[in-house]
Design brief:
Distance between the termini: 37 Å
Radius of gyration: 17 Å
CATH class: Alpha Beta
CATH architecture: Alpha-Beta Barrel
């Protein structure tokens, strides 16, 4: 399987990763990728980025070492209401928005409540990808999550890092197998994520690909193999439910003056971003 992209990675800006942005971009180019996403942790994770980091992303070129960069965030789902820890103003500055549950800043509920919170995050018009839904941090019901992902054109990630034996996430393997089987059944595309916190791990999908092979998951539903196909999915998202915001640089000073306000996902709430 030819891999062209990895859109879930972190740099030293996240506080617990070990490579710079330029080191990550260079490593991605050396691996032959066409697209790299750098998605730093938002403030709910201790030691991660201050909000000013996201406000200043406009200074970073989106082409580096011959590859395209998407600069975004891995945003924390905080509770069973699907509340995210980044406000709309800052989310609007990002090329890519991933939302996920992390034990350091999540208030859990029952499996049904956790599932409802994740579905609200899926429905959020800003969310492009749900990170590591199968890692076992929260007990979830995967069939309604897969159905919601299909309905709202939100991608579910098969996270390679959470499958590493050293992570001791005993539920990650059976959970991700179930997600892949359900996505195969409902013909829902997935995206593999390295969740690299050092340049050497970029586009490392060995554990995820083992599950892909075990489930005989169709390559046509894996979006890491073709940047153009990923862009076509994002165009669909842009047209139907969500907008990827790529703001002209000349508009950025005006945005600094906007008031910040939190967003808690609400079922059925659709808002176009212009």
């Amino acid at each position: 399987m030819k891999i062209e992209l990895d859109v879930h990675t972190h740099t030293i800006a996240s506080g617990h990763a070990f490579s710079s942005l330029q080191e990550m971009a260079r490593a991605a180019a050396d691996r032959g990728l066409k697209l790299l996403g750098i998605t730093e942790h938002t403030p709910g994770i201790p030691g991660s980025c201050h909000l000013i980091y996201f406000r200043n992303l406009h200074v970073v070129p989106r082409q580096m070492y011959g590859i395209e960069l998407l600069l975004g965030a891995e945003i924390n789902i905080l509770d069973t209401q699907g509340t995210l820890d980044l406000d709309e103003f800052h989310m609007s500055l990002l090329d890519l928005r991933i939302a996920g549950i992390h034990s350091l800043c999540y208030t859990p509920g029952t499996p049904e409540e956790n599932t409802q919170g994740m579905i609200k995050a899926i429905e959020n018009p800003y969310t492009h990808i749900i990170s590591h839904p199968g890692d076992g941090t929260a007990k979830l019901l995967f069939e309604p999550i897969v159905q919601a992902a299909k309905a709202h054109h939100t991608l579910l990630e098969i996270n390679n890092s959470s499958l590493k034996p050293c992570r001791n996430k005993v539920e990650a393997r059976p959970n991700n197998l179930e997600i892949l089987r359900l996505c195969k059944q409902y013909e829902v595309p997935v995206i593999l994520g390295s969740d690299a916190h050092i340049s050497f791990d970029i586009a490392t999908y060995d554990h995820a690909l083992e599950l892909v092979k075990e489930t005989e998951f169709p390559e046509s539903l894996i979006l890491n193999t073709d940047v153009a196909r990923l862009n076509s999915i994002y165009t669909l998202i842009n047209d139907e439910t969500k907008n990827i915001i790529r703001l002209p640089r000349q508009h950025l000073p005006l945005l600094f003056c906007r008031r910040n306000h939190a967003y808690a996902g609400a079922p059925g709430r659709k808002r176009k971003r212009v």
